[in-house]
Amino acid sequence: MSGRRTAPRHGDRPRERPAAPRESSPIGSATIGVLALLVSAATLVWAGMTTPPTNVRPTAATGTTSIARDLTCAGGLPDSTAAIGVAGRPSAEGLTVDGAAPHHPSLRLAGTPAEVHADAAVSAKAFAVRTASAKGWYAAGTCPSPRSTWWFVGAGGSQGHHSELTISNPRKGDAIVDIEVLGPHGVVRSPGLDDVRINSGSFRTFDLSKVAPAVGDLAVRVVTSRGLVSASVSDSWSADYVENPALDWVSDQPTAARRLNIAGVPATAADATLLVANPTEEEAVVQLSLVGRNGGFAPTKHATVRVPPGVVRPVALKAVLKAHPLGLRLVSQLPISATVRVRQGTDAAYLPAVEPLAGSGVLGVPTHSGSASLDLYGAKKSAKATVDVYDSAGRRLPSASVTVRTGAAAVVSLPAHAASIVVHAPGMSGALVLGADTKAALAVLALTTTSSQARVPAVVADW
User: Fold this and answer.
1) pLDDT tens digits for range 374-429
2) What is residue 33's DSSP assignment?
3) Strand order in 372-377's β-sheet?
4) Of the candidates 399, 448, 391, which has an alpha carbon nearest to the alpha carbon of residue 420?
């Protein structure tokens, strides 16, 4: 997409940008080869040169194979570090950082993002997490894999709320990205953010206060028209000009959706704000429900939230917190993106929108203060989840299993020496909650599916 943006006029409605094109051909190269073989065989039969095969038939993709994974750890906050490893193993064997074997499982993140590569043999249990802290605030987040679409809700483009967007391209071939920014009053004028080229092996940083200046909470969407990229937003936010700012990484969301589950609401939070971004041309009507240990229930306030087109709307949740929910569920007739910014003491955290696991998920447990727990949210029917816990030496600690009811949530407390977890909970979603019992060390990390398997086509004998 190219061209200059113009600020929306009164009555204008922002257009939703189409997602990056996907490779959706129903016939893969392996299948084409099989079809060509069968056509050739049929031609020979017609010519009387051979007999038709009777024991071979093409099949759909029936097998899986392990694949490698790439993880990008971007800094952007003072004294940022990353911890890498393989759950259940005492070393980082099978991992490389910027093309070389790591000398230590802890990495210092300077200005350049660190690119972590996990070989296929260890990718199923490889992890990389990042942290940063100072007096009064603590930040932690995962190191994500490259993809085509990124959403960040809760960023800022002003002096009192300042964010930087970092986009890196760890893969071969240049990537082309479009960046769009929404604010409280619609699309934010941001010239020069269309058709941005990110060269292979390089990165670019964008100061939102310069490229998309605006007062209030912003939503940033990154979409590639070529290639896959990793993106990160570092944030400095203060409730007013008197308080010292709290620093954090804004949680990312893969894409806008009609149903969102926001995880990790701490029971001790003093205040919280729901931020909902509507990238469409119509008003979004969002139904809000709360999720607790006994199931879902409607709040006494803000059960319905209306979000104008192209706008980021804040919704105060202080009264909602009195019900002590563990999570929020948003249902909209239009795709939306959202987060909850929680204030706790002098710290703040952005709660992630979590997706159901397709199988298992792995998370590193960063160095932290206070408690650590895993919040799990039920699927369409009650099911059991198993949490395998490992320490920094790869030793297995006591595991836990819990049955999560339909539409409800459960909490699994982690031991003090936990360094990584592997969660087997198909269909469930979850988040790691750190420092919920502190006043300056809160962080919430989304549990995501470990994409370490790929389907492969196969041709088998018809026995």
Assistant:
1) 999 998 899 999 999 999 999 999 999 999 999 999 999 999 999 999 999 999 99
2) H
3) 409-413, 372-377, 429-434, 443-447
4) 391
Beta pairing, strands 257-263 & 327-344: antiparallel
- Is 117 strand, coil or helix? strand
How far does CA 354 lie from the centroid of its chain? 8
Q: Could you tell me the pTM of the whole model? A: 0.84
For position 142, what pLDDT does the model report?
A: 97
> Please, how many CA atoms are within 13 Å of residue 93, restricted to the half-sphere of its CB?
7
User: For residues 250 and 235, is the Cβ–Cβ distance under 8 A?
Assistant: yes
Q: Is residue 114's pLDDT more than 50?
A: yes
> Closest Cα partner for 96 from 76, 69, 74?
69
Q: Is the confidence at residue 324, as pLDDT, over 80?
A: yes
Taking residues 323-348, report their average pLDDT.
96
Q: Which residues face 230 on adjacent strands? A: 168
Residues 6 or more apart whose CB falls under 8 angstroms from that of 185 comprise 214, 216, 311
Residue 5 has pLDDT above 90, yes or no: no
User: Burial of 457 by CB count in 10 Å (0-12 exposed, 13-18 middle, 19+ buried)?
Assistant: middle
d(CA 400, CA 397): 10
Of the candidates 71, 67, 121, 65, the residue with the CA atom closest to the CA atom of residue 94: 121
Write down the mean pLDDT value for the chain: 87
User: Residue 26 contacts by C-beta under 8 Å, 6 or more apart in sequence?
Assistant: none
Two tokens at 275?
Answer: 């931020």
For the chain, the C-alpha Rg in angstroms (whole number) is 24
The DSSP secondary structure of 209-269, one letter per residue, reads HHHS-EEEEEEEEEEEEES-BEEEEEEEE-SSSSSPPEEEEPPEESS-EEEEEEE---TT-
Q: Is residue 455 pLDDT above 90, yes or no?
A: no
139-160: pLDDT as tens digits: 999 999 999 999 999 999 998 8
DSSP H or E run through 358: none
Short-list 271, 235, 76, CA closest to 152: 235
Distance separating alpha carbons of residues 35 and 394, to the nearest angstrom: 48
- The side-by-side arrangement of strands in the sheet containing 95-97 is 69-73, 114-118, 95-97
